[in-house]
Amino acid sequence: MNRKIVTVGVYGASEEAFFRALQEAGVDTFVDIRRRRGVRGSEYAYANSQRLQARLAEMGIRYVHLLELAPTEAVRQVQYAADAQTKTAKRARNALSAQFVSAFRDEILARQTPAVFWDALPADARVVALFCVEREAAACHRSLVADWLAEQEEIVVEHIVPGE
Fold this sequence. Notes:
- The chain is 39% helix and 13% strand.
- The chain has six helices and five strands.
């Protein structure tokens, strides 16, 4: 089965650019892997869960929330500590710390299997978007989930940045 994973964030994207990027990528299934499904700031209100789900439904894109792939608060604190040490603002981060990567793999991914991921999706899902908020995939756990899936099976991964 030919499947593709795209990853997408919301920071820095207008509502129009965000949804256009999903359409251009051919996304049929949208997987929200955030713990908190809200985004601060009125410019990102379209990415808050209820509005996001409604717009995706209008576009014919299925929405799935997989909380089990979101970092726990303890894992998030590992990244916050690294950001504080380097004096990096969350929205300015362009890479995850090695400590976060290790904690996320040990605490989240080691407890999952790709089969559980795919079983949570509709059987005909072909182009699946992994979604969280950071603009750059390398600064977000969605890149770790995408890499983990690609390591387990032959799958194409593309990191898209709306508006680029």
